[in-house]
Amino acid sequence: SLLLSVNQTFFQASMATEYDRKRLENIRRNDEMMAALNVHAKASLLSAATKRPRAESKKKKKKTTNKPETPAVIRKSLRSRGLNPDGSSDKPKRMAPPQNASPPV
């Protein structure tokens, strides 16, 4: 079957490039060698002998994780919460600019 299609293609390719002609000739020779060795029949026997019925695959269960009831507390620094390092909520007072003895000139 493959040999006939190769031969037909070979005759159609008489005007093809040299590369195509060599390729088709190589395919034809390989097909003849395979037919002489009866490779196709042996391959089909081997594949039929080694086939096993596939076991039915079990569906995997998705693991469910228990989510904590209370969300995790996100830590924030005292500075970002507006607290002093000692923990009091009194915001530091801004310092007044220094008073010079003489006014600016």
Write the layout of secondary structure elements.
Elements: H1 2-12, H2 18-37, H3 39-50, H4 78-81
Helix pairs in contact: 1-2
GO biological process, one term: regulation of DNA damage checkpoint
Region (Disordered): 44-105
Keywords: Repeat, WD repeat
Detailed description of the structure:
The chain has a domain of 48 residues. The chain is elongated, with a radius of gyration of 43 Å. It has four helices and no strands. The longest helix has 20 residues. Helix 1 packs antiparallel against helix 2. It is 45% helix and 0% strand. By secondary structure, the protein is mostly helical. 1% of the residues are buried.
Q: Order of SSEs, N→C?
A: HHHH
Average pLDDT, all residues: 74
Counting DSSP H or I runs of 4 or more residues, the number of helices is 4
Shape: elongated
Biggest sheet features? none
End-to-end Cα distance, whole Å, is 109 Å
Radius of gyration: 43 Å
Low-confidence stretches: none
Number of strands: 0
Q: State the assembly state of the protein chains.
A: single chain
| Class by alpha and beta content | mainly alpha
Considering DSSP H and I runs of 4 or more, what fraction of the residues is helical? Answer: 40-55%
- Percent strand equals under 5%
